[in-house]
Amino acid sequence: xxxxxxxxxxxxxxxxxxxxxxxxxxxxxxxxxxxxxxxxxxxxxxxxxxxxxxxxxxxxxxxxxxxxxxxxxxxxxxxxxxxxxxxxxxxxxxxxxxxxxxxxxxxxxxxxxxxxxxxxxxxxxxxxxxxxxxxxxxxxxx
Length: 142
Hints:
It is a multi-pass membrane protein. By secondary structure, the chain is mostly helical. Helices cover 72% and strands 0% of the residues. It has helices at 4-29, 31-39, 45-65, 69-94, 114-133. The radius of gyration is 16 Å and the shape is globular. It starts with a helix and ends in a 9-residue tail after the last helix. 22% of the residues are buried.
């Protein structure tokens, strides 16, 4: 019988895999809106260009890595770092650090406001932490 921690570890990986795959595919699917949204953010154009082309690839790579037990923990950590980075950015937007509120993400998640997106990200940060903490013993590096 499988241990609860192992099932939870795989379940968290599956949920994060779906999130990251969805965000990557939605960016490619509606490339024009993705470009408009990215270039409407508050960071410099060079950074918007870098993120525009690298984020979907990174998100899809992390989603694929979550499929495999050997790369799952590394991917969970990378997902956590990405989620924290974006959540900090959302927090800065919400606290008016930039002096304006840029448009949000594409896809279904775009229906969330910045406040709801902040809470959404906090939930996924929590999931990533749980996934890291419940990693089965036989998958730990010794």
